[in-house]
Every structure is written in C-alpha cells, then in structure tokens.
Amino acid sequence: MSERDWYEILGVSPDATHEEIRAAYRRLARRYHPDSAEGGGDPKQFQLVQEAWEVLSDPDRRAAYDQKRRLQRLRRGRRRSMVGARPAVTMPVRYTLVMSPHEAARGGTVEVPVPYLWRCPVCLGSGLVAFEPCSDCDGGGTVKYTAVFTVHVPAGVRHNEILHFRADEPVPAEIMLRVALRGSGGRGYY
Ligand SMILES: [Zn+2]
Fold it and tell me: How many Å lie between the centroid of ligand 1 and the Cα of residue 133?
C-alpha cells in the first residue's frame, strides 16, 4: 500500500477544489511530460503526477484516499508519542474518601480505582487493522483501562484533610485523596 501524499505531489492543499487539482495537474503534467519543450521533462515525476490525478480526480477514490491518509497521519503521530512509553495516569487523580470517624481514627489501606486511556491491545494504538478502522477502539487507538491503587491512610486523619500519594504501580500516577468523615457535613467534597 503506497504512502505517497498525492496532494503534495500536485502541490495543492488537501481541501483543494476539483478545479484547483485539475489546474495543478495540467501545469505539472506539461512541465514533466517526456516530450516537454522545457528540457526533456521528467518521466518518473510525470508518472507520479498522473497517478495523483487519477486518484484525486475521481470523487470516490479521493474520498477513500482522504480517509486512509487521515488514519495514516493519526497512526504516525501516535507511534511517535507512544514509542518506548509505558501507560501512565497523566492527570492528578482527585478522589473523595468517605470514612467513618472510627475508620479515620484507626487508619488502614483503601483501594482507589482510576480509569485511564491507553493503547488498544488489538491494533497496538495504530487505530487500524488491515487498513480498516479498528473495531475495538473505533479507530481511536486507545481504550479505557482501570488501575486499582492501594494506598495507606494514616491513623487519625481529619475531615477535609488532603492526602497526597505518588504511585508507581500498577501505573505511575499522582493521587490526591480528600478525607470526608461521615457525619461531618457534605462540605469540601470534590
Ligand atoms: Zn484498536
């Protein structure tokens, strides 16, 4: 499957009108034609211009090409951003921890589930399977996962106190827990 950019070859923008494409094609075909008066032409470039015109002058082929081109660009961008990376929760997680006064006095461990987006395991983030949009992620390249963090709450936390954690497992994340004691009113929740 060719990854040539037919718009670049014709020197037009991807939203060029049919007339603009035709004008660019005519100009370039004249310039590169093997019998061109301007220095013998360029058969290879002429061939490319010809192919670009065949694709872009046909509304159906152009629409199909536009979609493929968008997906290829998406995939290239995503590959760059995900190469060598591991999943991470990039935004600080804010979570309200509702506890009874008794639990707060005693402390303990709590589990905090955090949803996050990461590379689709089916298309590996490309958004494409066999040049079609991936059905598992609708071509977006990411799917939703849930990381469950186990954090330790010290004994004696107070209402509205904010506990700050940096976790590395199961994925790196910054977590802020606001303690809400039952019976202390609903203020301060977020
Ligand atoms: Zn996918």
Answer: 8
